[in-house]
């Protein structure tokens, strides 16, 4: 599990790097990410992956999919969220 936890920040960095290449995307992200925080949380039925709540960006997953679907945290899904 420890190894899997280390993969989430790497995937976040990859998604942000790709997403923020477009200045409009970067600006949109800055507007909604008012707390400057990103977190990982478990939900029972979440399949949205990116969740923006109260100025925090969450990488949300289900406990049984924790090590799977990591590539779904990508710039395209983040762009759809914004």
Structural notes for this entry:
Helix content is 43%, strand content 20%. By secondary structure, the protein is of the alpha+beta class. It has one domain. Helix 1 crosses helix 3 (75-81). The longest helix has 18 residues, at 2-19.
Properties at a glance:
single chain; alpha+beta
> How many DSSP E strands?
3
Order of helices and strands: HHEEEH
Class from secondary-structure proportions: alpha+beta
> Which word captures the global form?
globular
Work out the oligomeric state of the chains in this entry: single chain
Provide the low-confidence segments as ranges: none
Rg value: 12 Å
Compact description:
The chain has 82 residues and is α+β, with helices and mostly antiparallel strands. The chain contains three helices and three strands.
Mind sketching the topology for me?
Blueprint: H1 2-19, H2 23-32, E1 37-42, E2 50-53, E3 56-61, H3 75-81
Parallel strand pairs: 1-3
Antiparallel strand pairs: 2-3
Helix pairs in contact: 1-3
């Amino acid at each position: 599990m420890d190894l899997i936890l280390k993969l989430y920040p790497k995937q976040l960095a990859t998604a942000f790097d790709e997403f923020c290449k477009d200045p409009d995307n970067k600006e949109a992200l800055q507007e909604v990410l008012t707390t400057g925080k990103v977190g990982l949380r478990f939900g029972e039925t979440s399949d949205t992956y990116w969740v923006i709540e109260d100025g925090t960006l969450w990488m949300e997953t289900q406990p049984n999919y924790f090590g799977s679907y990591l590539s779904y945290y990508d710039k395209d899904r983040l762009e759809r969220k914004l």
